[in-house]
TrEMBL record, chain A:
A Pfam family assignment: Bac_luciferase
Homology family: Belongs to the NtaA/SnaA/DszA monooxygenase family.
Segments passing through the bilayer: none
Organism: Actinoplanes palleronii
UniProt KW keywords: Flavoprotein, FMN, Monooxygenase, Oxidoreductase
Protein name per UniProt: Oxygenase
Domain Luciferase-like: 28-366
From TrEMBL, chain B:
Name of the molecule in the record: Monooxygenase
GO molecular function, one term: monooxygenase activity
InterPro entries for this protein: Diverse_substr_monoxygenases, Luciferase-like_dom, Luciferase-like_sf
Annotated keywords: Flavoprotein, FMN, Monooxygenase, Oxidoreductase
Sequence ranges assigned to domain Luciferase-like in this UniProt record: 21-263
Classification via Pfam families: Bac_luciferase (PF00296)
Gene3D superfamilies: Luciferase-like domain
Segments crossing the lipid bilayer: none
Length: 419, 339
């Protein structure tokens, strides 16, 4: 069988990605929006619908960050509701291993798998930061360098409980005495990109959800992961690679480009550009003109404020050097604050073009085994979802790289994972 | 005219209250539960409660977590309230509040919460927390309810403004840190979830937990009507807006001997009715003068529920929210700023 593309949608619920100023915007917090989205994706024969996790409302300098969409449900609760109104699509919850009790989370995931008839997935993240921990019983208890050790022990515990084995394990990272859950086998996703994250994926994950979307990066990443898999005695085919991707479709290339430019303008508004810099400067910059030069004042002492969400460790330190680099870049290319932010915001790769163009590009990715599919991060709701299902999916089907009907009933079936 | 008092609740976990009812079928049998709850909805029950525990009942199979069951049911029902048991003792208070708020959103305002207080050594061992009892346990429950209520209010109803002029999605002045400090945990907040449709979920709990003043509905389990009356009075004095009596029910007294031969029911821990539907209606009428509602625990759900459905003579409740059904007002937000 020639390789096939697997598609998911990552419904993040926070951050600048989702354009709420779009006149057609569906309230992203309303259950009806979730139901409509999941049902549209099921019509498009998607493998999975994902919910992200962020357990503290983002802030900017101690105040609730007010510019981006915010507000999201508990993922497992919401997916259980969606299980009742869908039949085939996989339902994946991002859940962290630091601020959960292993037996409790394993039980809830098994429950989702049970009520959905084998459609549950767990996107394993570590969320070790102490700022998020302030909402939990043991805030900040886990040192950053041990987060994947805890994650490994947590996942092993969950797998045992799902498989019918009681667990009695007590050490400095985990304390569980628990009987098995209802029988279950959620598909395991992993999203961390550090060596520890990749290693956890190689040991336990069925799917990786990476940020390595550009073709060359994707190829290198796949090679690295397959090497790690072999180290754990797993076959190269036992893991699916689904990088995150944004998609902007147009009837013509020009129309698509125009729409992509509009989306980016809406995503990087003047106030957002200033708020982005405030996070680094640690000072009020509201008096600066976002279309003018970078702030001339010196940033506050100390490292980066963690309150704008999960930040990879390498971005949490080295603030002064980063700001110096931006100043040099802005001076050299005469960038305004807004231009600079567009330039340096870590963006998920965006595919822009006609449905035919993107289908051609994706066909190459999957035939070369650079990826097994994509996890799409919608920018327009419901626009992105409807465009992809109605326009891109038929093109992929025409090229023979996308299913024309669900063959199985479980998420494991959809992903062609070993039984 | 259809009778609407007392309010009726139904416990739907397991196979029934009689020990001979055995355990529910295959653990993941959500289809059977869905059929039961839709029957209860058509029969005029105001809500179902879904008992749960981290550990399976002795000799029984592992259970599907009650919040997950309730959420699934939220999209298969239209009017009935859904109140899972979640235990304060062995969960993260922040997750608990988020899960319940999400259930209220998914059900468009039909969620309740039965406050669970499991505190056996075995259940604490599942999470590795130190075991609490007595006054420390009561304090933990009080803190768990208080922080959930604060978190449900942490977003004001109109916090999402989508103001293009100022580019603000939220009004940051209407999303509040709760800065809760309890005896054993603290939570900064706000919740990650906007305010639930009901503002506050309907919080139910036993009158024996020592937190009656924090409940919306106190559940009274006592074997005689006189004791129910006394305890109901006390619960009201302690501040519970509504009181429900727990009642075992077996319709058709002729079934009792056969069931008891398999496993004797034992002395009643709560009111118990074995007899006809007509006598049950009389009992309910009598209880209506003493309590606001009655929660039924059928001896065998698969036999007694269909009999209740025909025997109670009720129409489905109209909702739309559980608070509406129970006549509880939607509370003002404690953080709401004037103007
Ligand atoms: C595509 C993608 C999606 C992610 N989604 C989440 C999420 O929803 N919640 C979360 O806490 N972390 C999320 N993460 C963060 C990762 O779990 C991880 O913490 C981060 O990438 C840093 O990697 P490391 O933990 O291996 O250092 C995501 C990462 C990627 C690449």
């Amino acid at each position: 069988m020639s390789p096939r593309l697997h598609l998911g949608v990552f419904f993040t619920g926070v951050g600048p990605q989702l354009v709420w100023t779009d006149p057609a915007f569906s309230t992203h917090t309303h259950i009806d929006t979730f139901v409509a989205t999941a049902q549209t994706l099921e019509r498009g024969l998607f493998d999975a619908f994902f919910l992200g996790e962020g357990l503290r409302v983002r802030e900017n300098r101690g105040r609730v960050h007010d510019l981006d969409v915010a507000g999201r449900p508990d993922a497992i609760t919401q997916l259980a509701a969606l299980a009742a109104v869908t039949e085939r699509i996989g339902l994946v919850a991002t859940q962290n291993t630091t601020y959960n009790f292993p037996a409790d989370l394993a039980r809830r995931l098994a429950s989702l798998d049970a009520v959905s008839g084998g459609r549950a997935g767990w996107n394993i993240v570590t969320t070790d930061n102490a700022w998020t921990g302030e909402n939990f019983r043991r805030g900040g208890w886990l040192p950053h360098e041990r987060r994947y050790e805890r994650a490994g022990a947590f996942v092993e515990t969950a797998k045992a409980l799902w498989g019918g084995t009681a667990v009695d394990r007590h050490d400095d990272l985990i304390s569980v005495t628990a009987p098995p859950t209802v029988p279950a086998r959620p598909v395991l996703f992993q999203a961390g990109d550090s060596a520890g994250g990749r290693d956890l994926a190689a040991r336990h994950a069925d799917v990786v959800f990476s940020a390595n979307t550009d073709y060359d990066k994707a190829v290198a990443y796949a090679a690295d992961l397959r090497r790690r898999l072999a180290g754990y005695g797993r076959s190269a085919d036992s893991l699916r690679i689904l990088p995150g991707a944004a998609v902007v479709l147009g009837d013509t290339p020009a129309q698509a480009a125009e729409k992509a430019a509009w989306i980016q303008r809406e995503q990087v508004t003047g106030p957002r550009a200033l708020a982005f810099l405030e996070q680094y400067w640690g000072k009020d910059l509201s008096g600066y003109d976002p279309d003018g030069p970078l702030p001339d004042i010196e940033p506050a002492e100390g490292e980066l404020d963690p309150s704008r969400g999960t930040i990879a460790i390498e971005h949490r330190t080295g603030k002064a050097e980063r700001i110096a680099g931006w100043r040099a870049l802005a001076a050299e290319r005469k960038l305004s604050i807004r231009d600079l932010v567009v330039e340096v915001t870590p963006q998920h790769s965006t595919f822009v073009g006609t449905p035919g163009q993107i289908a051609d590009e994706w066909t190459r990715y999957v035939r070369d085994r650079a990826v097994d599919g994509f996890n799409i991060l919608p920018q327009l709701l419901p626009g992105t979802i409807e465009d992809i299902v109605d326009k891109l999916v038929p093109e992929l089907q025409d090229r023979g790289v996308y299913r024309t009907a669900y063959e199985g009933t479980t998420l494991r079936d959809h992903l062609d994972l070993p039984a | 005219m259809s009778v609407t008092r007392p309010h009726l609740a139904l416990e739907v976990d397991g196979a029934g209250a009689h020990p001979a009812a055995g355990h529910a079928g295959p653990a993941g049998d959500i289809a059977a539960l869905t059929a039961r709850v839709t029957t209860a909805e058509a029969a005029g029950f105001a809500l179902v409660t879904i008992a749960d525990a981290a550990l399976p009942p002795p000799g029984g199979p592992a259970r599907v977590e009650a919040g997950v069951r309730a959420s699934f049911l939220s999209r298969r029902t239209q009017r009935i309230g859904l109140a899972p048991t979640l235990h304060v003792t062995v969960t993260e208070p922040f997750h608990l509040a988020t899960q319940l708020a999400s259930l209220d959103h998914a059900s468009l305002g039909r969620a309740g919460w039965v406050v669970g207080a499991d505190h056996s050594a075995a259940v604490y061992a599942t999470v590795g927390l130190p075991r609490l009892d007595g006054a420390a346990l009561r304090q933990e429950l009080a803190d768990g309810i208080d922080v959930a209520r604060q978190l449900w209010d942490s977003w004001e109803d109109d916090a999402i403004i989508r103001d293009r002029v100022t580019s603000r999605f939220l009004d940051a002045d209407r999303v509040h840190h709760v800065n809760f400090t309890g005896e054993r945990f603290s939570v900064v907040g706000p919740l990650i979830t906007p305010r639930p449709p009901q503002g506050q979920l309907v919080v139910l709990g036993a009158d024996t937990l020592g937190v009656t003043g924090r409940l919306d509905v106190a559940l009274v389990a006592a074997p005689t009507v006189d004791e129910v009356a006394d305890r109901a009075r006390q619960a009201r004095t302690d501040g519970a807006p509504l009181v429900f009596a727990d009642l075992d029910v077996l319709l058709g007294a002729d079934r009792l001997a056969a069931l008891d031969a398999v496993a004797p029911w034992g002395p009643a821990q709560r009111l118990r009715h074995t007899g006809s539907a007509e006598d049950l209606r009389d009992l309910l009428e009598r209880l209506a003068g003493l309590v606001d509602g009655v929660r039924l625990h059928p001896a065998e759900l698969h036999v007694d529920l269909p009999r209740l459905a025909t025997g109670l003579g009720r129409r489905p409740v109209t909702g739309p929210t559980l608070r509406d059904t129970l006549g509880l007002h939607r509370p003002a937000n404690r953080f709401a700023t004037a103007g």
